[in-house]
Structure formats: structure tokens, C-alpha cells
Amino acid sequence: MRGRAWPWLALAVATVGALLAAACLRPVDSASSASDQGISVASTADAVSFHPYKTSDTASSTYQGLVYGGSLLDRDPQHPEQFIGRFAASWTVSDDGLTYTFTLRPDLVWSDGQPLTADDFKWTYDQASNPANAWPYLSTIEPIASYDAPDERTVVVRLKEPLAVGLELANTITPLPRHVWEQLDWNDPARNPEIEAPTVGSGPFLLQEWVRDDHATFVPNDHYFKGRPRLERYTIRIAGTAQIAYQWLKAGEVDVSTFSPGDYADAKRQDNFTVYEWWPATGDWSYVGYNLRQPALQDVRVRRALAYAVDRQAIIDRLLYGLAEPIYSTFAPTCWCYDPDVPHRDYDLDRARALLDEAGYVPGADGIRARDGTRLALRLLYGPNTNRTRQLIATVLQASFHQIGVDVQITGLEWSAYLAALRTPPFAWDLNVGGWSATVDPHWMYQIWSAEGIPDLNAGAYQNPTVEALFEQGAHELDQAKRKPIYDEIQRILAEDQPYIFLYANKAYEGVNNRLGGIVPSPLGLDWNLEQWYVRP
Fold this sequence. Notes:
By secondary structure, this protein is α+β, with helices and mostly antiparallel strands. It folds into 2 domains: 1-279 and 518-537, Periplasmic binding protein-like II (D-Maltodextrin-Binding Protein, domain 2), CATH 3.40.190; 284-506, Roll (Dipeptide-binding Protein, domain 3), CATH 3.10.105.10. 24% of the residues lie in helices and 23% in strands. It contains 13 helices and 25 strands. A hairpin with a 5-residue loop joins strand 5 and strand 6. The radius of gyration is 24 Å and the shape is globular. Mean pLDDT is 91; it is low at 1-35.
């Protein structure tokens, strides 16, 4: 899985194989964007919907951000550990650390000209916090005692207790236009057209047309509080694979695209686009997940043996062309809490075989190990099946594990089928190749290790009360210097328990056509200032 940790902890990339249906407002020729003041960007997958409180994938959040514009605060693009105002002009924190008071900007309006007020925030919070509405991240707002709008420009969030992540917690809500949504069904797209084709927003762009699995086109919001975007059109084209997206980029058919590591060297040689690179502030890392419901994998010696059989550096050098760093626990090197001194299980086939011997798995006549008559045969899933890098990693793992007497069968699935296999009974898998994009603050990663995250976020069903207690302790410790040892201990325990084989932290990169201006690289990525992008004369 590729995810975004809270409030962006999500399973990334929308369903590639969704039905080919169109949600159309005004028709547009998407191919024209390369010849005027509009641009096209490539995506390997489409969104699921525009409902911010019904989705948990990266593609959907991208679409939603264009239309709904975010929340009260932003992370500072050059200093991500700090917050800056977005819809909020200013904010204060009470001396007891419980009450956060935000003053909204005076120039906020919806795209239809109606005022965007604190009441929109309050109404949206009330809907999101209603358990009947099944927000995937409902548990994250449990520490909020009250959420109020005493007047049109004031939002007051009171916590049940002081928390180190209190400001981020108070910044949870992306407002929806109450005057539009209040008359519609929150849950049913058939009774709420705004879920699939929003007409009113507060972000830099508005949806013009969405043809599923083909493209989505957005046009400027004249009422955007930062000013009307300089681009006349922003089209997301669905490539399906990174290879197709890269060919579009090379041919000038799209202006922005990522690509597979195997194309990196070729991309750096091109003269019609520039490759921007950055280490994400949020930490983007990949892993092999264990299904701990399976008896063989409940033995930590087996999990550690498999970890020793993985040559991380070879994967980084040969499959990722050096665009990554090896990791051994749950946080990436860009996190302030990162501990490089956790136990390492670097490539060591002899040690792997010894651990399997110790666990009672003896090689059979065909070389595959067995214990008590049960062969050590594992099913490895990866998704989406269009992801060439994950496919190659799965193939490398299969060969590596075979060397220590473990049989592995590989299955690549379309994205929605992959997620369903991980999340729903009978959980007929043993290993999965996945990844996470975390948050700047490490606390929100607790969801992938907590019992309450099973199975949606904690697909492997790992449970350790000590780890959960440490995450809780870390959230309550307000001094970052004192928080650091807490997260060090979390990393140490996870490295010992080995619920994942932690593989590597990814370097981010993207190709941008040289006809675009206004690009300012940041640890948060490139599109944080999308409204300032422009097409050069």
C-alpha cells in the first residue's frame, strides 16, 4: 500500500480499473491544453470521488485539494516543521494548551460568491464526526472535546487534554459549502451530485470535466483567496502506467509527470523538461508487509529470517538506480525522530537459514523447507499490477526467498482488488509489497501499528500494547527533546518485532516541461504554489 499518514494517512492511488463513466459539467478538448495557457499532467491512476470524507487515496485527495483548497493552516513549504496560515489569518493557543482559536481571513468566499465562514467549518465537522457517516479517520478527532463557531470569522477547537500534536489536530477539517451540501445526502452519490461533480469550491480550481480513467480538467476559480490562478486550464490525464506517462512527457503531450526509476538516467538527458528532485519532508518509504494472522509468520524467527534474505542495497542500486536509502524501522531519515541505530538485518543468507533451522523448518527433497509436514510456501501480493517497480521487487524477493528454502507465489492485482484482498476476509495472503507516505510529525503513524487500524490501515494485524502506549506517551509529551527517546524506543521495538521488512525511503522526483514557470521546489513537493505556475511566453 502507498498511503498518506493522518490527516493524510491514506492508501495511495485511486482505482485504475474503475468503470469508464463520465461526470461532465462543460465539455472540453483536453488535448488543447498544451497549446494555450493551460497544462496537462500525467497520473498513473484516477480518483475515486471528490468527497473528502469518503476517500483515503492520494489521487482523490489531489482532486479534492484543487477544488476545496485545504484547511485552516498549511505546513511552511520551506520549513515543514512550522505552520503558516491558510484559511486562518491568525491563531492563538490557550495557556493550558487545550483551546485553539482561529481567526479566518476576511476575504474568504466560495466560488459562487457566497461567504466562506466559520459556520462552514463547524457544519462540516459535525457531519464528519457523526459515526453514521463513516469517515475513515474518525478516530483521529476523538481527542477533540468541542468544535465551535462563535461568530462568522472565529473557529474554536477545544481538546480533552494537551497534546504535542494539538495544533495539527485542530487543523483537521477541510470545509465544505454548507449552503450547497446541507440540502444533499452526505453519503449517496446518486442523491448528491457534488460527490462526483462538485460545482462550488474554495480551492484554486473548479472541475470542468471528469471522464473516468481518461482525464479530469479544471479551470481557475475567480474567487480564490490567493488570487485567480495564472493557468487557464489544468488537466490530469490518466496514463495507467509510469512508462506511458514518461513517453507522454518526452513527447510533450503532458507537461508534468513522474516516471519509473529505470527512466531516470534517460530523463536527465532530455532538454525539453527539467527533473526536479527532493527528499520528502513527510518520508516516503516502502516495505514488505507480513500477514500476522498466518501461523508461520507469527514466529518472529521466520520474519527475521526473511528480512535477512533481502538485499536492500541491491534493490536500491539495480531497481531504483540509487534513488533511495535503506531503512530498518518505521520512520524515514527526513523525520526529526529518525533513529539510525535500531537493529539492522542486512543481507545475510547464512543467518537467514540458521534462523529457519532454529524455528524448525527443515529443507525437503525439493529444497523447500517444512515444519510438521507443512511447507513454507507463501503468497505475495503487489498492486497495482501496472507498477513495474513493485513487480520487479516482488520477483527479486521470490528469488531471494527461494535461496533460503521458502517458496513464494506472486500475484499482481488491480488496485481495488489488491486493497480488497488485504482488507477483507479470508485474508488469503502472506506478504505484500507496499509503501507509506507519512506526516511531518511522527505521531500519526500510530494508525498503521494500532489494533484499531486493523484491517484498513494495519492490514497485517500487528498488535503490541507497548508500542501503542509509547505512541500515546509521545503525543502527550510537549517537549520535542523528550519526545525523541520515546520514538526511538518505538523504532527499536518494531525493528525487533519485524512486522514489516522495512526496505527503503524513496527520493521524490518529477519531470516538468521547460515551458512552465513559477516552479519552486520544496520538501513538500512542487505543486504547493500551483496557483503561481504559468506558461512562459
